[in-house]
Amino acid sequence: MVLTAAVHLPEESELTVQEVNLSAATLRAGSFHLGKYCEQANNEFMLCRIEENDPRKCINEGKAVTACTLNFFRKVKSACLNEFNQYANCVDKSSGDYALQQ
After folding, report:
1. Which of 21, 27, 44, 65 has the most CB atoms around it within 10 Å of its CB?
2. What is the tally of structural domains in the chain?
3. What own/partner pairs with CB < 8 Å and gap ≥ 24 does 94-100 have?
4. What is its main location (predicted)?
5. Which helix or strand (DSSP H or E) is residue 59 part of?
6. CA dist 45 to 29, 40, 69, 95, Å?
7. Euclidean distance between the first and final Cα of the chain, in Å?
8. Does 32 reside within a domain?
9. Is 73 a domain residue?
10. Is residue 98 part of a domain?
11. Tens of pLDDT along the chain (102 residues)?
């Protein structure tokens, strides 16, 4: 895509959201449950990306996915932080590609 004066680029304020500041192992450990918890928001985002073929038009759907992810990990933290941290540590240390091995 060539950028010209006719191309609208979003302002930084439109793009700014709270980041999901977690390690790869933590995201991997929660991935199955996160995928189910945020399935609807993620499906809407992916559908928008496919239909619009322009990621700038799907900013709000992307923000919804990020908000859902943050909400999921807040619930994990309040309900089962110790158990989840043990599992994430296991995933982190089990192998270089985060695959569970014994």
Report:
1. 65
2. 1
3. 98/24, 98/25, 98/28
4. mitochondrion
5. helix 59-94
6. 23, 9, 13, 32
7. 47
8. no
9. yes
10. no
11. 577 888 888 888 888 899 999 999 899 999 999 999 999 999 999 999 999 988 889 999 999 999 999 999 999 999 999 999 999 998 888 877 766 565
Tokens 């700038």 sit on residue: 56
Residues in the chain: 102
Domain, as residue range, for 53: 38-83
22's tokens: 């977690």
| pLDDT tens-digit readout, 24-37 | 989 999 999 999 99
CA pair distance 12, 18, nearest whole angstrom: 13
Report d(CA 3, CA 10) in Å as an integer: 13
